Amino acid sequence: MPDQITPATPPSTGPLPGAGSAARTYKEDKPPRGLYVRVFIYVVATHVLLAFLSFLVFVAKTR
Q: CA-to-CA distance for 22 and 37, rounded, in angstroms?
């Protein structure tokens, strides 16, 4: 086993090849479109569930 310690290679500061144009077009502050669709479905499903439960309570009280 040698007594010499090999120095770690310093990280390269240059851009990765092939990632130049894709990295420039991606915007971090804009959420993905699927998030809006998912939230819309959850909100609609919650309202439908609450309306159905309210209808059941109304039916139960009128009997």
A: 25
Q: Is 60 exposed, middle or buried (0-12, 13-18, 19+ CB in 10 A)?
A: exposed
Q: What is the mean pLDDT of each successive set of 10 residues along the chain, which is 63 residues long? A: 66 59 68 88 98 98 93
Q: Cα–Cα distance between 63 and 60 in angstroms, integer? A: 6
Query: Which residue reads 């159905």 in tokens?
Result: 52
Alpha carbons 45 and 5: distance in angstroms, whole number: 62
State the Cα–Cα distance between residues 32 and 38, nearest whole angstrom. Answer: 10
Residues in the chain: 63
